[in-house]
Amino acid sequence: MKTMRYLLVLGLIALMTMVLAACGEDDPTATPTPRQAAEPTPTQAAMMDEKPTLVFADLNWSSAVLQNWVARVILEEGYGYETDAVAGGTLPLMQALVGGDLNVNMEIWLPNQQEAWDKAVAEGTIQGIGDSLSSVAWQSAFLIPKYTADANPGLRSVEDLKNPEYQALFTRTATGDKAALITCIPGWECEIRNEQQVIGYGLADHVELVNPGSFEGLNSEILSAFERGEDILFYYWGPTALIGTLVSEYGGYVRLEEPASTPECEEHIGATHDNPADTEYACEYADAEVVIAMRTDLIEKAPDVVDFFEAYTLSDDGIFSLLGRYADTGEDPADVAKYWLRTSHEWEEWVAPGVADKVLDALGGHIAMEDKMMEDGPAYWELFVRPDSEGKAGLVTCIPGWECEVVNEKQVHGYGLDEVITLINPGSYEGLNSEILGAFERGENILFYYWGPETLPAKLTNEYGGFVRLEEPAYSAECWDHMSSVDEAEDITQACEYSDADVLIAVRTELLESAPDVVAFLEKWTLSDDAVNALLGRLDETGDDYADVAEWWMRQSQEWAAWVAPEALGRMAQFADGSPVETDSSKPTIIFSDLNWSTALLQNAVARAIIEAGYGYPTDSVSGATIPMMQALAAGDTNVTMEIWLPNQQAAWTEASEAGTVTEIGDSLASVAWQSAFLIPQYVADAHPGLRSVEDLLKPQG
Predict the structure, then answer these.
(1) For the chain, what is the radius of gyration of the CA atoms?
(2) Residue range 502-672 in CATH 3.10.105.10
(3) Stretch (H or E) spanning 180
């Protein structure tokens, strides 16, 4: 029933013509039809006498319809403008905007409509005011389910479809030994482009285009395959409700890599449009910028509207919330927009002072979180409520004093989760491990922070079925700079996941002259994944001292010997029988940062054993957490740190390295390290397939 309802709703809201917009192909005979305006309230009537009517392009796909209503409700209730709309397709409504039959279009897709857009802008009739969507709009004919990509790590590009093994994943009876590609709807411009891509990529002998028959047929093909866990190769675009459903309920999808779009390629695609068989090469669809356009004659008449649209940018969370409710409830788009305005604070940043209060007063005020939950049913975050979490979800966070403690708090605020999540302080490294392991042993729900490579994640995977990282907004330098520059978590306006970390070895610069042989040894050091797993596994199995685990590994493996100078290897052989190691007191003491986690302590133990026995240097260590140990290295209280995590410690590292007191000499781990504050047990994820991202924590349990 859920699938049928979903498809019926999609059919009713006419999402199919979104691709027509993306491809620039509409029925040129379509006649724009006025839509009845919303009735103004009595208090607005006098204000509307002197204000121009704002007439919107009512484009026939869901994101445009919903954005129109978000803007119309704000402009009517908050600014006192009368609004109206003219319905139609892409080309007729571009003509209507240029001709003055309407004066606002919330979704001009560029470069898809570039020629008509450039002409109108050059004539001075219209002007771009800003981007309506924070992310670009996209389309691709080479999408596969994420579960297919996970099971076939060698399938990452269109070129890989020439491999018979991957080609066979998508064959059907009707396509013989060729992969079936569920393509664009008949009559849409993208139908031709997809054919050109298959020919231009040299896939004609490997891939056959399958006509879905209709928009409903395309959705049914895709959704049915995902529900059954079948492999499928298909065309689609975003942002759309179906894409949101595939991500939130079925684990998502992967775009196979294609040659990048270039002006030369686009020109060739255009030249061979009428004869696709002549296509010699092809490229991906260019992502589209979605621009808000206004008539230039409106700009002077309504400067406050211009200010509003210049500030307007609907986030990914915003558009998917709107699309999801539209698809799930079948409500009128105006009601969907009003509900979103009452449950989101995002739009309040776009409007002039006092406007948000007017809008909310007219709509009945914000819907409080508890009221929203009563309406929608229990949310996923409620799975993690604990006796000590004050009625909110408990997130077992980072060890006190570690930098991640601050980052995790900022992420909770930046993701809009501060009303539903309480950070639980584990007290110590041992306390964190105990909290997590205890929950897994009892089969309890838990939301927690951790990192890897480490002993505990390996144990959770080997003995308890593993864990899942909830998807977060992707790391970017801009986002991380914002998080780093804002002191108070409450002031964070955006957040993103931790970047995977390069783990560096750093030494005091004076060590380059006083112990060049030690520096040369550490420059060759890179601990492999096998070595890390062996060391962590031994530590977990035996509970031995770190030095004993290091000694065991050095007897089992010869990996470390490649890092050591021949004369040092010879010296170490003298102590192979267990004789006491002798160090040279005239040499400087190599003082390590004893960071309080397993990989750092194990690496220290291995390095110290080699430096003492092989090179004759005395060694020592200073224990502490990340920030104090960075300060100790910069001040000279230690002179070697085996694990500097970047970009996590970027600001402190940059300051110290620019001062010339420390220097990087290589990576200590062969693989990147990871960390996340939003981990859940695999058994929780299996029981709740709708919980796959931090955004899902706010959604009703399905």
Answers:
(1) 30
(2) yes
(3) strand 179-182
